[in-house]
Amino acid sequence: MTTQQELAGKVALVTGAARNIGRAIAMALAEGGATVVVHARSSVDAARQTADMCRAGGAADAMVALADLTDPAAVKRMFDEIAERFGSLDTLVHNAAERADSPFESIAFAEWRRIVASILDSAFLCDQAALPFLRRSDGASIIHIGGVAAHTGVRHRPHVSAAKAGVAGLTRALAAELAADRITVNCISPARMETERKGELPEHFRERPVPLGRGGEPMELAALVRFLAGPSGRFITGQTIHLNGGWHMGQ
């Protein structure tokens, strides 16, 4: 059960937190009392707004960190900034990702690499850079935000599907490897979420409705992140938790 301020004294980094799901996650952790690092690649104003919302919502403190997470040097600089400002890190929530819709035969290798790097390479780089911090924590967690495309057939998103499947595999491997350090590693796999988006819903969500009759709210996903990061989630690790209103029932 989530209790008020159960994350007091903890420091959490949320990647891709300038808006939408990332912002909701940052705010949920702030409401739990955590100090929050709001990452964005370039959306400075939106990231600052998220940080302000976190402070107003209960965060002990909040900072903005800008970085291209596909660049190892940029990731290192970001973690150096966190170390200088807060000296510790207890929770890494990796949400940052790019998506694209392209028929397989028309995907240039450059597009393939860009999408895979934004999802899978960035998770590797952040997880590895966070590890020295997490090993010093008495309640550390890594939470990857995956996607239903990793688990069911989705046309025109083979690069997204492959990269998100890689994130699910990385989750299980790290959970096994880091269990001795008492670091939990889990993946949340959402389907249709009600976020600000350009254009219409992706084809797969237009073709097949969500059984519960709606998309998920970002705060529903954020509440699950808060639970996994908190004291009540310490015996859950190596799991991919599906959050999709029944859209994917083990097909």
CATH superfamily: NAD(P)-binding Rossmann-like Domain
Question: What percentage of amino acids are in beta strands?
Answer: 5-15%
Give a short account of the largest sheet. 7 strands, parallel
Poorly predicted runs of 5 or more residues: none
The total strand number stands at 7
CATH architecture: 3-Layer(aba) Sandwich
Using only CA atoms, what is the Rg? 17 Å
Count of alpha and pi helical runs: 7
Query: Roughly how much helix do the residues carry, as a percent range?
Result: 40-55%
Overall pLDDT confidence: 92
CATH level-1 class? Alpha Beta
Total number of domains = 1
Spatial order of the strands forming the largest sheet: 3-2-1-4-5-6-7
Sequence-ordered SSE layout with sheet pairings:
Blueprint lengths: L10 E4 L5 H12 L3 E6 L3 H14 L4 E5 L5 H14 L5 E4 L14 H27 L5 E5 L12 H21 L5 E7 L12 H5 L10 H12 L10 E4 L8
Parallel strand pairs: 1-2, 1-4, 2-3, 4-5, 5-6, 6-7
Helix pairs in contact: 1-2, 1-7, 3-4, 4-5
Verbal overview:
Helix content is 42%, strand content 14%. With 251 residues, it is of the alpha/beta class. It has one domain: NAD(P)-binding Rossmann-like Domain (Rossmann fold), CATH 3.40.50.720. Strands 3-2-1-4-5-6-7 form a 7-stranded parallel beta sheet, sandwiched between helices. Helix 1 runs parallel beside helix 2 (44-57), helix 3 runs parallel beside helix 4 (109-135) and helix 4 (109-135) runs parallel beside helix 5. The longest helix has 27 residues, at 109-135. It is globular, with a radius of gyration of 17 Å. The two termini are 30 Å apart. The mean pLDDT is 92.
